[in-house]
Amino acid sequence: MKGSYAIDGGAIYEMATRSDVGGMLREAMKSGDVVAHTHELAITEVLYLLCRRIGFDKAKSHVDNLILSGLVDLEPTADLMETAGRLKCQYPIALADCYTLALAERHHLAALFRERETELVREMKRIPFEVVLVFLSDFGSEIT
Predict the structure, then answer these.
(1) pTM, entire model
(2) Using CB atoms within 10 A of its CB, is residue 99 exposed (0-12), middle (13-18) or buried (19+)?
(3) Average pLDDT of the chain to the nearest whole number
(4) pLDDT for residue 141
C-alpha cells in the first residue's frame, strides 16, 4: 500500500490507538510511502472516539499532536460541503463518509476506510463511486 489517500476517521482512530494495522499505517505515513489527507469531520470523530476511551483532555492532546505532526494534511470541511452534500443526496451513507469521498474526489485520491462497512459495500454495488475505495482491514499485516 503506497500512495496518497483520503483517510476516514476510523482509519485515523486505528492509527491513534496504535492497533496493529493502525501502527503499520502510521509507519507507512512516517516513511512517506503513504501520504494522508483528511477533513475536519474525521478529526472530530477521532476526538470523540478517543474521548470515550481516555477522556477529553488526553484525546484532545492526541489529536493536537497528530495535526501538528504533519503526518496528515487537514482539509477544511467548508471546502467539501457541496460535494459531500451531493454524495449524501445520492447515497444513503454516513455524512462523515461523504466528506471522505468528497475529499478523495477533489484531489483525485483513493478513499481509505477502516473496514468494509455494510452500507458502503451495498452502495458500491448499486451505484459505483467516482473514486476507488480501499479498506484498512483488507491489509492486515501488509501495509507497505
Answers:
(1) 0.92
(2) buried
(3) 92
(4) 44
